[in-house]
Amino acid sequence: MIPLHLRISGFLSYRDPVELDFASIKLACISGQNGAGKSSLLDSITWVLFGEARGKGADIINLHSDVMGRRLY
Fold this sequence. Notes:
- The chain is α+β, with helices and mostly antiparallel strands.
- The chain has helices at residues 38-50, 65-68; strands spanning 5-8, 18-21.
- The radius of gyration is 13 Å and the shape is globular.
């Protein structure tokens, strides 16, 4: 599988909308400080493909009203 585009909003540490374009990337390294959201990126891809992530619970989706109003569809 080669991901081309990822849009995240209200998922784990990504409360605000974030869009990533992987189309021109041939090789990538995800790095950053603890809590920066590296695992959340991988969990979001797993969630889209298989309907579950590491946590396997509904708590990975951020349902707070301030987040829900900013969601991208």
